[in-house]
């Protein structure tokens, strides 16, 4: 009887350990470059490794009831990088607004900086995510 009780008592601990490992893996996938401020990192959806690209600053303003964003990307390394990016515009409950932007390609030279800009498709957009994929050149 004790053996059954010990196994039954161990089951929640095993489940908790599996859940903790799953969450740790998911958190590791969402790590951002330390040079990116936390407020900016919350707006960036990085697909893969940052490869020395950091989003240093993001400016969001509302002009004529439409959101406008500018984001500064800096290459912290000496080698050139190719960045694929797009902006996803969200409404007040987190749903995507509009059809979505197509992926854009940009080169960021070693130790260089580039600014990307975008305008929301409608006034319903109240938030955004900058999706990025960085590849070595």
Automatic annotation (TrEMBL):
Coiled-coil region list: none
UniProt xrefs under Pfam families: DUF1425
Species: Acidovorax benzenivorans
The entry's keywords: Signal
Record's protein name: YcfL family protein
Top-level taxon of the source organism: Bacteria
Classification lineage: Bacteria, Pseudomonadati, Pseudomonadota, Betaproteobacteria, Burkholderiales
Signal peptide start and end residues: 1-26
The keyword Nuclease is annotated on this UniProt entry: no
UniProt keyword annotation of Zinc present: no
